[in-house]
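Deviation from plan, reported transparently: 2-acetamido-2-deoxy-beta-D-glucopyranose complex.
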Amino acid sequence: MAMARGFLVAAALCLALAVPAAMGQAAAPAPKAAAAPAPKAAAAGPPNVTAILEKGGSYSTFIRLMKSTQQDTQLNSQLNGTSTGFTVFAPTDGAFSGLKAGTLNSLSQQDQVSLVQAHIVPRYYSMDAFDTASNPVRTQASGADGPYTLNITATSTDQVNVSTGVVVTTVGNALRADQPLAVYSVDKVLLPYALFGPKPPPSPPPVPSAGKKPSKGDSSASAEAPAGSGGNSAGAAAAGARAAGWVLAALVAAASLL
Ligand SMILES: *[C@@H]1O[C@H](CO)[C@@H](O)[C@H](O)[C@H]1NC(C)=O
Ligand SMILES: *[C@@H]1O[C@H](CO)[C@@H](O)[C@H](O)[C@H]1NC(C)=O
Ligand SMILES: *[C@@H]1O[C@H](CO)[C@@H](O)[C@H](O)[C@H]1NC(C)=O
Ligand SMILES: *[C@@H]1O[C@H](CO)[C@@H](O)[C@H](O)[C@H]1NC(C)=O
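Because the crystal trials were delayed, the predicted structure below was used instead.
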């Protein structure tokens, strides 16, 4: 028993000492070994946006949103064979938690697709190339009024700002910046103007055509009128007016009989 335990302890000690040593050995020659096959391995497949975001470590909400809207597989397949490349602005988890509560849930599935697509520009921009961007830059999203756009401006302080018209933020560090895919961190969700911009004022409710103003003798008609103000349609009000007119006509007819 004691010997067996002793053996186990010794074996565990050997492992504990050997594993880091082995790892150290494996890690040390890796760059040399990787140097030769690397170009081939990189060319073997298109970049995987999900893997890049996962590696970034703080993009789980955006990853989840990309998956639920199938924009991860969409982009990954578009990346295979693209000549112009893509640029993704990836909002951090902090960016999403900075949104007003319920913002995402208030969006329809289609609008969630648009929200994700509004963070994807169908062109590869290196950090230095942003100042060649011609504003407004179209994104992958579009709606009834055309493509959703971003304005990208390189500021004098060597910052790059991106604006939707609702949100302005500074482009953060690159999670990846090699053709054909650039992924930049942003600390705000790029809320599209088309979804979050000021809405045109609702067209004023149609003023029910009051018909003729109640005249002095028209007491029955003016008694009817308030009934139409509680949301009844203009048609109902008109019908009321017609009925009142009919009553009046009947009264006149009755009077003429006297
Ligand atoms: C991309 O990466 C994710 C996460 O690592 C993985 O689940 C997925 O299978 C990958 N997709 C492709 C097409 O390799
Ligand atoms: C990329 O496209 C080529 C040709 O269309 C196809 O053969 C290949 O399987 C694709 N690779 C991936 C990872 O989807
Ligand atoms: C974006 O840039 C265009 C062209 O410079 C300009 O007309 C437009 O007003 C800008 N929009 C926003 C939201 O800054
Ligand atoms: C760039 O964006 C930052 C916010 O991230 C803002 O404070 C700054 O004023 C912007 N600069 C320009 C030139 O728009």
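Residues 48, 50-51, 54, 76 surround 2-acetamido-2-deoxy-beta-D-glucopyranose (ligand 1) (CB under 6 Å). We consider this an acceptable substitute for the interim report.
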